[in-house]
Specification:
Layout lengths: L4 E9 L2 E6 L2 E7 L1 H11 L4 E5 L11 H8 L6 E4 L5 H9 L4 E4 L1 H5 L2 H10 L4 E9 L23 H6 L4 E5 L4 E6 H11 L3 E6 L11 H10 L4 E4 L5 H9 L5 E4 L1 H4 L5 H10 L9 H8 L8 E7 L5 E7 L1 H10 L3 E4 L4 E4 L8 E8 L6 E7 L25
Parallel strand pairs: 1-4, 1-12, 4-5, 5-6, 6-7, 7-10, 10-11, 11-12, 13-18
Antiparallel strand pairs: 1-2, 2-3, 7-8, 8-9, 13-14, 15-16, 17-18
Length: about 400
């Protein structure tokens, strides 16, 4: 079994993360940039960013916000809401997203899924399918026995013909029915080139009553692309059930994570303890989580030459710099002036090879012992600390 993914969802309206029940009674859950940054550090496997009002209000996703969020995360990142054309998709991907999510636009113009997958690759194209259960109709009860086919005896023949799965696709935040059967639509978007399906039960969304594992299993069994279960998680067991009973490749939640009811590391530990393979947090990410950052989210790094114990320089790190440093054992920093990753020695050849890393007692400063190639300072001096400051003589009282 492949590792199962844990995905927080950032539903955004008017520049704020919100969460409610069935997309109504929304309450504020924070700044999207800060939320994204926190989830990245907490060990989330991916993020989904949805501008939930974009389609209704006929406006595009706020690209500047996408750029800001993308700057804070180093895990796969999906963006949806108000995306209606290949040009919109290009703009979102160029802003920093790894994938885009199509919902209403795919229903209105199914060929957009094909055009997008051919242009950018199916791995970039997620089709979000929002569903509601329909009374009557043939309903397959979730079961590991694929030969079992439970039937609702009260179903009318008319409903059976129109919604054989028992579920209808809805769009625009659940406000508009489409007349499409959920299972048939899932099969169609796969045939058009979708690389993944984000399946949300609007009957369960925000209710904390558990994922709808009936339709999740139905679709997961019918398609070969990954299915993300969304809508209804309320406790740890729900995530397990969504994976085992629903057959989901990933499980998504919002309010449980936003309001601290379930912590992502605790959820991963729970799933792992029940035999579900999950991606564990790296030691570097665990270290970064424990550090105290300055208001810009940076940590100072003092560099000492390992052989002479000379203090060479002081610079700053964000998570990306620390991650690259640990992975390559070459010092990387965050340039505050250029606001970008900086690999020491990339242009000068004066690399710093990490030998040992120490942490101070307040957990707000890192100390690196390195072998220095050439001069550490851009002036050509061996160390940046070459200017002596005169200390006044102590006056006698």
């Amino acid at each position: 079994m492949l590792s199962k993914r844990i995905i927080p969802c950032l539903d955004v309206k008017n520049g704020r993360v919100v969460k409610g029940t069935n997309f109504i009674s929304l309450r504020d859950a924070g700044d999207p940039v800060e939320c994204a940054k926190a989830y990245n550090e907490a060990g989330a496997d991916e993020l989904v960013f949805l501008d939930i009002s974009a389609t209704i209000e006929a406006r595009g996703t706020v690209v500047d916000m996408v750029k800001s969020v993308a700057e804070q995360v180093f895990i796969p990142f999906t963006v949806g809401g108000g995306i209606r054309s290949v040009e919109d998709i290009r703009e979102i991907l160029n802003a920093g997203a790894d994938k885009i999510s199509l919902n209403s636009a795919a229903v209105k113009d199914p060929d957009l899924v094909r055009r997008a997958s051919e242009k950018f690759g199916s791995q970039c194209v997620v089709v979000a399918i929002d569903v509601r259960g329909r009374k009557g109709g043939k309903i397959r009860i979730a079961s590991t026995d694929t030969s079992f086919d439970g039937i609702d005896e009260t179903a009318s023949e008319e409903d059976n013909d129109k919604f054989p799965s028992g579920y209808e696709v809805v769009v625009a935040g659940g406000t508009k029915p489409t007349g499409l059967d959920a299972l048939e639509w899932a099969k169609k978007v796969e045939s058009l080139g979708a690389g993944e399906i984000l399946l949300t039960s609007l009957d369960r969304d925000g209710t904390k009553s558990g994922f709808d594992n009936v339709i999740t299993r139905m679709i997961a069994d019918a398609v070969s692309i990954p299915v993300i279960a969304s809508g209804g998680a309320g406790k740890l067991e729900d995530f397990y059930d969504g994976i085992v009973d629903g057959g989901a490749d990933a499980v998504l939640a919002a309010s449980l994570f936003h309001f601290g009811e379930i912590q992502i590391p605790d959820l991963k530990a729970y799933l792992s303890g029940r035999g579900i393979p999950v991606r564990t947090m790296s030691s570097t990410l665990s270290l970064w989580q424990s550090l105290k950052k300055d208001p810009q989210g940076l940590v100072p790094a003092i560099v000492v030459e390992d052989s002479t114990k000379d203090v060479l320089m002081l610079a700053y790190m964000d998570y990306e710099a620390l991650e690259q440093t640990m992975a390559t054992r070459l010092m990387h920093y965050h340039s505050r002036s250029r606001n970008e990753l900086w690999k020491k020695g990339e242009t000068s050849g004066h690399f710093q090879h990490v030998k040992k890393v120490m942490l101070d007692c307040d957990r707000d400063t890192l100390l690196f012992y390195c072998d220095q190639d050439g001069a550490a300072c851009h002036t050509g001096n061996h160390t940046c600390f070459f200017t002596e400051v005169t200390v006044p003589e102590k006056k006698n009282d």
